[in-house]
Design a protein that fits this description.
about 110 residues, 3 helices, alpha+beta, 4-stranded mixed β-sheet
Length: about 110
């Protein structure tokens, strides 16, 4: 199961309305309270139980907010520095993160 935790803005480009990652809203979107609220919504919908937690956390702007702290809580481990794993720098300012069983992999969204 993947927990998608994105914060988009709606913008118009060449007459088309699209959604794009919202860098100015990343700190607010990636708070522990926000992650816990989304996790609670998944519990309410029966997607998450005490024995079944998300195995992927997908976010925009992994370097903003409490992403690593939330993943550490889910994995019941202490948070390590986000830079302690071998992650390459994002290719754009719209970097995404997938976290699985305590291992983080950075991917970039290119526009």
């Amino acid at each position: 199961m993947t927990l998608n935790h994105f914060n988009y803005i709606t913008t118009e480009i060449v007459g088309r309305t699209i959604q794009a990652p919202n860098p100015s809203g990343a700190d607010a979107a990636n708070t522990l309270d926000s992650f816990h609220a989304q996790l609670q919504q998944c519990k309410t919908n029966g997607l998450v139980t005490d024995t079944r937690i998300p195995n992927f956390i997908a976010v925009d702007f992994y370097d903003k907010g409490a992403v690593f702290q939330f993943v550490a809580e889910l994995n019941r481990v202490q948070q390590k520095s986000p830079r302690s794993s071998a992650m390459s720098p994002p290719l754009s300012s719209s970097a995404s993160l997938a976290a699985f069983a305590g291992f983080a992999v950075a991917a970039a969204t290119l526009f």
